[in-house]
Amino acid sequence: MELRQLRYFVAIVDHGSLSRAALVLHVAQPALTQQLRQLEEDLGAQLLHRTAQGVHSTDAGKVFYEHAQAILKQVADARSAVTQSARPAGNVTLGLPHSISGALALPLLTAARAHYPDITLQLTEELTGNLTEQLKSGRVNLAVLFDDGQLTPFATTPLADEALRFICRTDAPWFAGRAAVTLAEALGATLILPGLQHGVRPRIEAVARAAGLATANVIEINSITILKSALLADLGATILPVAPVLAEIQRGQMRWLDIHSPAIARSVVLCASRTLPPTIAVTAISKLAVDVARELCDGGAWPGAMAVGQP
User: What is the pairing mode between strands 180-182 and 190-193?
Assistant: First the structure.
């Protein structure tokens, strides 16, 4: 198996056609077909279905595509680490959960362009469960995750502690006229939450169990956009940080209430691989993310979040 075969395979999948991939790669199509055939023989599996409309990945091809992407990224990172000068340069891919990107993505991207013009910062927004797998495989260099006690495979740096609030449509009947609710009251409502392996859900379930409580009526939605639409349709309430729905709150479409007895919060951390050495650029973006998070917390631009170590 050769690196060029991995590059060829990824290009074919990305472009959905042998002819288009050959054109982009500047490789004759028969040569591309031969390399693909050798790769499939080496692996002992068919990776692509050929049809008149193009090519489609087999189940084996889908699995191999993820690994091929990760390997090619690690090779690019290794090359960048060797060629970098004292001035950080290269590509850094950072994964953000949906519920964090609204607060952190644009400020971090702006700061990176200002401080490190030779670094290309690529931001990807994913469910937390997906980000964990991408970080393990090396497809992303860094990921913002939530400390649920399961992050031991990663090197972690605390960014902030973020309060979770009870959020509903402004005119919803849930606890009208009140500024706060108990956790038991919040859990008793019809809640719209991510699935058990994503986002705030593991933290909510853990705090509920510790308090001898449990969620009762839950609608599971793994998309912030769809979740907000469901809130606005008055299908239920949610328990989230304020940041993802700040625009709707400012427009008067939603409101939030504090949760107490007990309060509920999550620890936001920056994660990196323990096994893959970071490039100079990755280290620079890591430090910048910590600084940007602290500035956002201190300036009130990240609602409900407190920089770690703050009183």
Answer: unpaired
Q: What is the pLDDT along the chain (311 residues), one digit of tens a residue?
A: 888 888 888 889 998 888 888 888 888 888 888 888 888 888 898 888 888 777 889 999 888 988 888 888 888 877 776 765 557 888 999 999 988 998 999 999 999 999 999 999 999 999 888 899 899 888 899 999 998 778 888 999 999 999 999 999 999 999 999 999 999 999 999 999 999 888 789 999 999 999 999 998 999 999 999 999 999 999 999 999 999 999 999 999 999 999 999 999 999 999 999 888 888 999 999 999 999 999 999 999 999 999 986 44
Domain total of the chain: 3
Please check whether residues 156 and 179 belong to one and the same domain: no
Separation between Cα atoms, residue 213 and residue 51, nearest integer Å: 54
Question: Residue 93 sits in a domain of what CATH number?
Answer: 3.40.190.10
With CA atoms as reference, report the closest residue to 157 among 149, 148, 147. 147
Residue 54, domain CATH: 1.10.10.10
pTM as predicted? 0.72
Task: Please tell me the distance from the alpha carbon of residue 253 to that of residue 229, in angstroms, as a whole number.
Answer: 11
Q: Which domain holds residue 149?
A: 86-162+268-307
CB 218 within 8 A of CB 191: yes
Taking the C-alpha atoms of residue 268 and residue 156, their distance in angstroms, rounded to an integer, is: 10
